[in-house]
Design goal:
Heterotrimer of A, B and C subunits. This is Glutamyl-tRNA(Gln) amidotransferase subunit A. This protein is α/β, with parallel strands linked by helices. It has a domain of 202 residues: Amidase signature (AS) domain (Amidase signature (AS) enzymes, Alpha-Beta Complex). It is built from 14 helices and eleven strands. The strands form two sheets. The chain has an eight-stranded mixed sheet. It has a three-stranded mixed sheet with strand order 1-3-2, with helices on both faces. Helix 8 crosses helix 10 and helix 8 packs across helix 11. The protein starts with a helix and ends with a helix. The structure holds glutamine. Glutamine (GLN) binds next to loops. Glutamine binds next to loops.
């Protein structure tokens, strides 16, 4: 009730939630109270959270912040929604996001922009901007997000949160509306690394319904949070401190790195020589995958359908013209072009080769270091409207996060202080399945 009251009071300004699930939340909370009274409660039992509106929730609108799915009531739960409910958590509602998770500012939502609780003239980052703003404004203690190129870590950075993109395949994608399937991963958005560890524990694990889900033992993420950092080697990529990084962020990140040295870690300058190719590579692969994933929105099976279609072509054309926003259309056009006959080798195959080189950079670096650290985003939160008409500048917001998705490895953004009252994020990048190591470093820092 505390969180529902805060949502009532502040959501009209922040716009973090698309759907508030008041009745369901109270019913789930009462059930959790009963389990507590019987001494049967687990650690997350009764704790509220919010789900990004990209996760299917049975009987509840799941819009992906698109007009296309404004009327879509999901007929089943995403695996992570199910797992989190089984852990006893209470769902407060569904959070705002960039349309189909395409964006870095939460301004492409059909439901309007989200405001950053630290400065309501600014964006919260994106695409999981509603999930970030909800936690930052105290409208939920934790939330879920998805990260295809930075969409958990960048809004976490801009809203002073801890945001984790797990290793590809650790968390099930079943019931998570697809954007770019080889890059999409779900993860927790919380205030602290400790909360992140608890929520990841509930989310991670093999799922036979997701063919890219991996069978592995899941460690106890909380057990190693306090381990010493003595002797750890932290790699600092020189490419992350070059052109494009604002001076204030560079200073804050260097201060944070010094803190790790005090804890007994050593810093080592490294190079990720293909870093400059990550944005061009991503903007071929992600739109290509998006163009095929979004072909299912045809006005036939579900979602928006235009009025009085004259024939099948008219049905498809007007449904998609009306249902998708500009950024989504831009991605579909780029992706269709990159995959078209005669261009496939020049764009898509070339991008896949560059992706392999980017992965190789990390493999080489991790021969010498345990963790890689640097900024999460090149700038603090920017003004609403400032970059929305300049897609290329917007795309650069993800210059430090995208390579991590292309390589499939885990990345964590943690608060590293404020610049002029705006939060700055420090990014920690790990080897495949080294989430526990990242959370440990983050916890020692916090
Ligand atoms: N900002 C990037 C994009 O627009 C990443 C989005 C994401 O991670 N979902 O594609």
């Amino acid at each position: 009730r505390h969180f529902l009251a805060r949502i009532n009071e502040h959501n009209p300004t922040v716009n973090a939630y698309i759907t508030v699930m008041e009745e369901q939340a109270i019913a789930q909370a009462k059930a959790a109270d009963a389990r507590r009274a019987n001494g049967k409660a687990s650690v997350l039992d009764g704790i509220p959270l919010a789900h990004k509106d990209i996760f299917c929730t049975e009987g509840v609108r799941t819009s992906c912040a698109s007009k296309m799915l404004d009327n879509f009531i999901a007929p089943y739960n995403a695996t992570i929604v199910e797992k989190i409910a089984t852990a006893g958590m209470v769902t407060l509602g569904k959070t705002n996001m960039d349309e189909f998770a395409m964006g870095s500012s939460n301004e492409t939502s059909w439901y309007g922009p989200v405001r950053n609780p630290w400065n309501t003239d600014c964006v919260p980052g994106g695409s999981s901007g509603g999930s970030a703003a909800a936690v930052a404004a105290g409208l939920a203690p934790a939330s879920t997000g998805t990260d295809t190129g930075g969409s958990i870590r960048q809004p976490a950075a801009l809203c002073n949160l801890t945001g984790l993109k797990p290793t590809y395949g650790l968390v099930s994608r079943y019931g998570m509306i697809a954007f770019a399937s080889s890059l999409d991963q779900a993860g927790p958005m919380t205030r602290t690394a400790e909360d992140s560890a608890l929520l990841l524990q509930a989310m991670a694990g093999f799922d036979e319904k997701d063919s890219t889900s991996l069978k592995r033992d899941i460690p106890d993420y909380n057990a190693t949070l306090n381990d010493s950092l003595e002797g750890k080697v932290i790699g600092v990529p020189k490419e992350f401190f070059a052109e494009g990084l604002s001076d204030e962020i560079a200073t804050k990140v260097r201060d944070a790195l010094a803190e790790f040295e005090k804890q007994g870690a050593t810093l080592k300058e490294i190079s990720l020589p293909h870093s400059h190719l990550s944005i061009p590579c991503y903007y071929v692969i992600a739109p290509a995958e998006a163009s095929t994933n979004l072909s299912r929105y045809d006005g036939v099976r579900y979602g928006h359908r235009c009025e009085n279609p004259q024939d099948l072509a008219d049905l498809y054309t007007r449904t998609r013209e009306e249902g998708f926003g500009d950024e989504v259309k831009r991605r579909i056009l780029v992706g269709t072009y990159a995959l078209s006959a005669g261009f496939y080798d020049a764009y898509y195959r070339k991008a896949q080769r560059i992706r392999r080189l980017i992965k190789q950079d990390f493999i080489e670096a991790f021969k010498e270091v345990d963790i890689i650290a640097g900024p999460t985003s090149p700038n603090p939160a920017f003004g609403i409207g400032e970059k929305v008409n300049d897609p290329l500048t917007m795309y650069l917001e993800d210059m430090y996060t995208i390579a991590v998705n292309l390589a499939g490895i885990p990345g964590l953004s943690i608060p590293a202080g404020l610049v002029d009252g705006k939060p700055v994020g420090l990014q920690l990048i790990g080897k495949d399945f080294c989430e526990a190591e990242l959370l440990n470093a983050a916890h020692r820092f916090q």
